[in-house]
Write a sequence for this structure.
């Protein structure tokens, strides 16, 4: 199969206008979301004391590295027309497995007793545990054609349930080797930037390249925009969606391992609601819930919007209950605005 068109189907828009080439709908939405993110930041800077500071701008990204990383895998799957609500459970499971595998076998009680594996082997085992959940997602979605939202909601509970059993509903944080806390707290190139933040940046760059330049990214758009035509074109949709689920679970596994290393504990409730935050930032960034439209850059701007709303709510001393309401309002307004803007643009 030869693919010559390098532009994803629904990102083209109309190609010509009076002044030359017309901006694609995808670029239009991305700029719109970016403008909203900047606008919200300026409004928050006026309303919240000390909000407009360089350190605060950096914290909006660095404090949300885990959700942004998860958003990459969730975005690719949404573009393909599939959901992944299992990532929060995978974060908990992989972190708990890494701790359990690395704990010494001679602990004083059951929560301090593990398998005593070398740290690198404990991390590898936890990573494969995450991939197993991704493979389970792909099996039921691809092989048995069960709706992805149902499958991944179920595997999220399975993953978190296993983590609950291993930790007995609590956490494992003792009898760990000294090396366990290195990865999550390591800085790169002698700067203050931690390894997890650096890996998030690398992941974003690689994802943008795949989305815009690689055949794999173009196939993702084609499958999401018209799965029937994709099958007729000879694209192996099942194999591609399987790779996407493994990719998403691999990201979630790495996030869980790094968080466990950062806090030196395996906590069964870690990652709670992260799957919904990852979904929210993708939707805020203009990713179509029906598939075939969206971008990783848009998802990143969506994360900034969510971070600004949450941080501003905290600065205004609003209760967590109001923060949930603000998130919901932000999602509704974003989807309505994007739909209205596209409809008006394409009249």
């Amino acid at each position: 199969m030869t693919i010559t068109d390098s532009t994803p189907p629904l990102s083209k828009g109309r190609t010509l206008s009076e002044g030359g080439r017309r901006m694609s709908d995808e670029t239009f939405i991305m700029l719109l979301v970016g403008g909203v993110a900047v606008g919200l930041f300026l409004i928050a800077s006026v309303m919240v004391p000390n909000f407009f500071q360089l350190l605060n701008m950096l914290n909006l990204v660095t404090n949300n590295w885990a959700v942004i990383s998860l958003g990459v895998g969730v975005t690719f799957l949404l573009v393909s027309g599939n959901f992944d609500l299992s990532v929060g459970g995978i974060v908990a499971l992989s972190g708990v497995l890494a701790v359990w595998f690395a704990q010494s076998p001679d602990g004083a009680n059951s929560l301090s007793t593990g398998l005593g594996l070398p740290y690198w082997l404990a991390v590898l085992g936890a990573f494969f545990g995450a991939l197993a959940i991704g493979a389970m997602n792909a099996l039921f979605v691809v092989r048995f054609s069960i709706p992805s939202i149902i499958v991944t909601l179920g595997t999220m509970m399975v993953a978190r349930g296993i983590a609950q059993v291993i930790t007995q509903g609590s956490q494992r944080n003792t009898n760990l080797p000294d090396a366990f806390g290195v990865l999550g707290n390591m800085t790169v190139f002698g700067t203050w930037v931690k390894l997890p933040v650096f890996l998030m940046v690398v992941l974003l760059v690689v994802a943008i390249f795949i989305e815009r330049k690689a055949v794999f990214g173009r196939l993702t758009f084609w499958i999401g925009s018209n799965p029937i035509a994709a099958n007729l074109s000879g694209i192996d949709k099942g194999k591609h969606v399987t790779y996407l689920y493994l990719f998403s679970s691999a990201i979630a596994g790495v996030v869980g391992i790094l968080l466990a290393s950062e806090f030196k504990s395996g906590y069964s409730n870690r990652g709670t609601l992260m799957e919904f935050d990852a979904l929210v930032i993708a939707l805020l960034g203009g990713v179509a819930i029906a598939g075939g439209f969206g971008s990783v850059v848009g998802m990143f701007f969506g994360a900034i919007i969510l971070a600004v709303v949450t941080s501003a709510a905290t600065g205004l001393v609003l209760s967590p209950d109001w923060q949930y309401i603000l998130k919901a309002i932000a999602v509704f307004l974003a989807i309505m605005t994007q739909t209205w803007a596209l409809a008006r643009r394409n009249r």
Q: What stands out?
A: The beta strands are 16-17, 20-21, 171-172, 266-267. The CA atoms of residues 285 and 298 lie 4 Å apart.
